[in-house]
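User: Can you help me understand a structure? I only have the sequence.
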Amino acid sequence: MSGSDRKPVISYFIFDIETIADGDLVAKIRYPNETLTADEAIAKYRAQLLADTGKDVLPVTFMLPISVAVAKVDAEYKLHDVAVLDSPKFRPHVITRHFWQGWNAYGRPTLVTFNGRGYDVPVMELAAYRYGYSVPAWFNVEARTYEQARNRYNANAHLDLLDLLSNFGASRISGGLNLLANLIGKPGKTGVDGSQVQGMYDAGEVGAINDYCRCDVLDTYFVFLRTRVLLGKLTVEDEHRLVSEAKVWLEAESENIPVYKTYLSHWGDWKPPTDA
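Assistant: Let's start by predicting it. Here is the structure, written out as tokens:
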């Protein structure tokens, strides 16, 4: 087998999820003495949260993954693919199974997220619990503390870019992933955000949700590259080359995945500062 025929070794799974509420569970747990439909229970809970906290984001315990997008990246930080799981059916239980099985099948690459420790990973852990899937390599609780995959400081298992850039919560990254992407000339949010996902799902727009998730993963990949510069793992020149290669890949893939054309239409080129 020639070098060009050899499959790349994937070292990083950069992923993002989008979720929907389990209305039946909300009705059963939150409103057991009321005869609410699933939709009514979700609406009531969101209204209560909005009144109490100013946000209508339901806790992870009530959420199901309706989209998981995974960017497959090798040890040299080259992007090889972006996959959305269980396309085009997007069934939560299959998405969950494919995610954890894929992580094992690829040799347990480092998970890379933005705020994944606070949201994405707990959703996927609880989904595995709900559906009865075993993930012993992730829940390796008998290993030494620092070797456990779920240890907050084990960046070889899971690198949360928000943890990295906020010094593990010591500071606040106001603006989030959208801001960080825009700082390096990448699209960021282009008309859709997570607060719209439930409404999009209710309107039957599951494909559009997965398109949005793809774009968030791309932003996360480019932010990840800049953090490699920050850590001295890449030079700015290396980063520029990888970004250029990814752009060429996106242009080719956009013939089959039209949302990449939209993403590229918001593309900006980062330029280093000058002393002039």
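Now, to help you interpret it: Residues 46 and 58 are 7 Å apart (CA to CA). The radius of gyration is 19 Å. Let me know which part you'd like to focus on.
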